[in-house]
Amino acid sequence: MGDLESEKEIRRGRFLAVISYISLLGAITLIWKRHNRFALFHAKQGIVLFGFEVASFILIRIRILDALLSTCGFWIFMLISLWGIVQVFMGKYGRIVIISDIA
């Protein structure tokens, strides 16, 4: 794919790539833009990140690692999501360690 086509694909998928990092909205991207590699890349990472957020919430609720996860878990996931959104705005395929491998 040429640079011009790649830029066009990024431009077309940017909005849905951004919302992919917000809660479970990555599922919308998987449905509407599954043919757009840029949006799909970020949607997969967003969904895996959301899965980790749900798992940490469950662990907090059953009192396993409560102190650690309740104090910094939210901020860690928020920062990772923001980093992903910044990568989208820059038009990059920013890989999130561990999450990208799972996605």
Number of helices: 5
> Helix/strand-derived class?
mainly alpha
Query: What is the CA-CA span between the terminal residues?
Result: 23 Å
Q: What low-confidence regions span 5 or more consecutive residues with pLDDT below 50?
A: none
SSE sequence, one letter per element: HHHHH
Beta content? under 5%
Computed Rg: 15 Å
Record field, number of beta strands: 0
* Helix content, binned percent: over 70%
Q: Quick check: average pLDDT?
A: 81
Largest sheet: none
Overall geometry comes to: elongated
Structure characterization notes:
By secondary structure, this protein is mostly helical. The chain contains 5 helices and no strands. It has helices at residues 3-19, 26-32, 37-61, 66-89, 99-102. Helix 3 runs antiparallel to helix 4 (66-89). The chain is elongated and about 50 Å long.
How would you concisely characterize the structure shown here?
The protein is mostly helical and 103 residues long.
